[in-house]
Design goal:
170 residues, six-stranded mixed sheet, 28% strand, binds guanosine-5'-diphosphate, binds magnesium ion, Ras-related protein Rab-5C-like isoform X1, GTPase activity, GTP binding, nucleotide-binding
Length: 170
């Protein structure tokens, strides 16, 4: 039988960047223009099958950490993986993403796999965060980096697959 490796994954990032939308796109293959805001945290599982086994992600979707700052440490303390999301049209959300990277580097498991997702790629024409800037930041910090769109379904399964592969190779 296929070996299954559990992995606790947390979604972090400023409110409205598209965390819940990315997750709903992954799980339901759907997108909602008016996504209800998450209260507290929601929990989902999603399994990615690889050649040498499967990674079963136990995914925690957190609410806007600008309001629930003190809740976050209990989510990330035992996490094996994190996706930190920002909105490519909003520079402040990228600055917030950098803060979360530092926060995890200090407080999370030392082996945590961190992915940076520049979401809303479909709004490329009004972007305010350049791809090169994010890619450089990701490279310097050892992060997986992809630009994604929950709306047009770009790099959604791919980012989870990249995390699963990195976890399997650790
Ligand atoms: P969260 O607060 O980070 O969970 O963000 P939500 O998933 O609730 O999304 C906030 C808003 O952004 C909603 O109106 C979504 O429809 C919209 N949104 C999410 N992802 C995308 C995307 O990839 N492209 C566009 N254009 N809008 C998005
Ligand atoms: Mg949400």
């Amino acid at each position: 039988p296929e070996k299954i490796f559990p992995s606790k994954l947390i979604l972090l990032g400023e409110s409205s960047v598209g965390k819940s939308s990315l997750l709903l796109r992954l799980i339901n293959r759907q997108f909602y223009n008016y996504q209800e805001s998450t209260i507290g945290a929601a929990f989902f599982t999603h399994t990615i099958h690889l050649d040498n086994g499967a990674v079963k992600f136990e995914i925690w979707d957190t609410a806007g950490q600008e309001r629930y700052n003190s809740l976050a440490p209990m989510y990330y303390r035992s996490a094996q993986a994190a996706i930190i999301v920002y909105d490519i049209t909003n520079k402040d959300t990228f600055e917030r993403a950098k803060y979360w990277v530092k926060e995890l580097q200090i407080n999370a498991n030392s082996g945590i796999i961190i992915a940076l997702a520049g979401n809303k790629l479909d709004l490329n024409t009004i972007r305010s965060v350049e791809t090169d800037e994010s890619r450089t930041f990701a490279h310097e910090n050892g992060l997986i980096f992809m630009e994604t769109s929950a709306k047009t379904c770009v790099n959604v399964t791919e980012i989870f697959k990249a995390i699963a592969e990195k976890q399997q190779n650790n």
